[in-house]
Design a protein that fits this description.
By secondary structure, the protein is mainly beta. It has one domain: Beta-galactosidase, Chain A, domain 5 (Distorted Sandwich), CATH 2.70.98.10. It is built from 1 helix and 21 strands. It has one helix spanning 284-293; strands spanning 4-9, 15-20, 25-29, 35-40, 68-73, 89-92, 96-103, 109-118, 121-130, 135-145, 150-154, 170-173, 184-186, 190-194, 203-208, 213-218, 221-227, 241-245, 250-255, 259-261, 266-277. The strands form 2 sheets. Strands 1, 2, 3, 4, 5, 10, 12, 15, 18, 19 and 20 form an 11-stranded antiparallel β-sheet that branches. β2 and β3 (25-29) form a beta hairpin.
């Protein structure tokens, strides 16, 4: 599989690194980040969210920008919302690139985003490098998708009572999460959040130890993200994966364990992404098949199909 890597300007004139195969293209901003700002078919629309240029910044200068970003957890105003709007360093390889940002003043951390495209998949490595001082943070990978679509959070395979007497999974809720929200579907095999541009209220749910993958779909387009699991204490009541929607976007989120980092130490979070266009609009059955074809645990997803 040939991988093409080149520097281009996006339609708005911003410099980017483009990494592409025959079926999938990604772009990473060179003037801000590290950020992955485009994902889709070559010549096709961007599946990721793009913030309008005139959108206001937070008080500290941070802007959402959009696309895929690397944050640190737990979330707080000082250590999380660090502006990433300056040029990045580029390290090129045979089948991908690594982008490194500057050292952040609040944490002493330098963030890096490594991208490789191979064997029909996108390998994404998120790295927190402690350069000065110490910190107690976790890598937090967040992908923001554009309007429309559904985010999928799989459940662990269902087992009936009395075969299962003890709990084996949990959900994490935020104070603003309304379980009566019509965008939320608590299915037998998966939790779904459907994006609705007419409903601006944020909605977020996390889970402890799901099967390791999340998905986003819109019509026939599908993106699956699998995160390599690392044991350790976590922020957000132990959540390993989270899904979020508001009026503008929807997000897939994955968190690594909290680590105490001294100068020279690193924390990493590795993901594998698959982008596909299915023959039919994505439903639970089509998603289950795509998950199984990629060697992942479909969990109880098949139980989301109507019973015969």
């Amino acid at each position: 599989m040939a991988v093409q890597i080149d520097e281009i300007n996006d339609p708005d004139g911003r410099p980017c690194i483009r990494v592409a195969t025959a079926g999938t293209e990604i772009r990473l901003r060179l003037d801000a980040g590290p950020r992955l700002v485009f994902l889709g078919r070559p010549g096709g629309p961007n599946l990721l969210y793009e913030e309008p240029e005139d959108a206001p910044a937070r008080q500290n200068g941070w802007r959402l920008i959009g696309g895929h970003r690397l944050w640190t957890a737990p979330e707080d105003e000082l250590q999380t919302y660090v502006a990433d709007n300056t040029p990045v360093e580029v390290l090129r390889g045979a089948d991908g690139v690594t982008l490194r940002g500057p050292v952040e003043e609040p944490t002493g951390i330098r963030k890096a985003l490594g991208i490789r495209m191979t064997a029909g998949a996108i390998q994404v490595r998120h790295t927190l490098e402690q350069v000065v001082g110490t910190s107690h943070r976790a890598p937090w990978a967040i992908t923001a998708f554009g309007p429309g679509g559904t985010v999928w959070l799989p459940r662990v395979t269902h087992r009936p009572h009395p075969d299962a007497l003890l709990p084996d999974q949990s959900l994490v809720l935020w104070p603003y999460t309304d379980l009566g929200d019509p965008r939320l579907e608590l299915g037998s095999g998966a939790i779904r959040l459907r994006h609705d541009a007419q409903r601006g209220t944020p909605l977020k749910i996390g889970a402890v130890h799901p099967p390791g993958w999340l998905a986003w779909s819109r019509e026939r387009e599908l993106v699956i993200q699998h995160t390599r699991h690392h044991e350790g204490p976590r922020a957000d009541l132990g959540a390993t994966h989270e899904v979020y929607v508001d009026g503008a976007l929807s997000e897939l989120e994955a968190l690594g364990p909290l680590q105490k980092l001294a100068p020279g130490e690193q924390a990493t979070l590795d993901q594998t992404w698959w982008h596909a266009v299915l023959p039919e609009p994505v439903d639970a059955e089509g998603l289950e098949q795509a998950v199984l074809e990629r060697g992942l645990d479909a969990a109880g997803l098949g139980e989301s199909r109507p019973r015969q």
